[in-house]
Amino acid sequence: MYQVFITGYRLVAVPYTKPYYVYTIEVTKPNSTSVHSVEKRYSEFNTLHRLLKKDTDTAPFPPKRVRNSQLKVLEQRRSALESYIQKMIRLSSTKQQVLHFLGIDSRAPTTGERMQGDTGNGDPRQPRSNTLKHHPVLTFQCDPYVRANTASSLPDIVTNGVLEYFKD
């Protein structure tokens, strides 16, 4: 049987978005000493819960609180999320979806997955990377500062002013 523990949480400060907390989940596979570690946001847990709720009865899910930066609230949420994920992995109807959520299935680990003591080069003495594996992405279909809105009858004075300033 898989053993799942949420061992901690940390604040992630990302440019251009509000900071958020990620929870460190450690999973021990049956008959194994290797530990699979993954970090997930509360919103990812909530998405999993909504998905599982469609197919089967689920365990109670911890509610979102407005002031989630207080240590007491964070620890209560960590404990409640740990209890929730442990209950859902024990149910045969939700086990595969939870394992998929945790990045575990019958295949070998991919580059995005981390095993404790495994750095990819075969040397368990090397420290493992603690970098976050997901980052926000900001893209534009076109350059918003070069192409003006041609459908508008009003001139784009901001873009024109910027282009004139950098013309020289």
Explain how this protein is built.
There is one protein chain. 30% of the residues lie in helices and 17% in strands. The chain is of the alpha+beta class. The protein has a four-stranded antiparallel beta sheet. Helix 2 (71-90) packs across helix 3 (95-101). Residues 106-132 have low confidence and may be disordered.
Helix content: 25-40%
State the strand order across the main sheet. 1-2-3-4
Give the count of helical stretches.
Answer: 4
Number of strands: 4
- Poorly predicted parts: 106-132
- Overall shape: it is elongated
Oligomer: single chain
Largest sheet: 4 strands, antiparallel
Strand content: 15-25%
N-to-C series of helices and strands: EEEHHHEH
Structural class determined from secondary elements: alpha+beta
Q: What's the rounded overall pLDDT mean?
A: 74
What is the first-to-last residue Cα distance?
Answer: 69 Å
Spatial extent as radius of gyration: 22 Å
Which descriptors would you attach to this protein?
17% strand; elongated; alpha+beta; 168 residues; 4 strands; 4 helices
Summarize the structure.
This protein has helices at 42-55, 71-90, 95-101, 157-165; strands spanning 3-12, 20-28, 35-41, 114-115. It has 168 residues and is α+β, with helices and mostly antiparallel strands. Strands 1-2-3-4 form a four-stranded antiparallel β-sheet.
Q: What is the topological layout?
A:
Blueprint: E1 3-12, E2 20-28, E3 35-41, H1 42-55, H2 71-90, H3 95-101, E4 114-115, H4 157-165
Antiparallel strand pairs: 1-2, 2-3, 3-4
Helix pairs in contact: 2-3
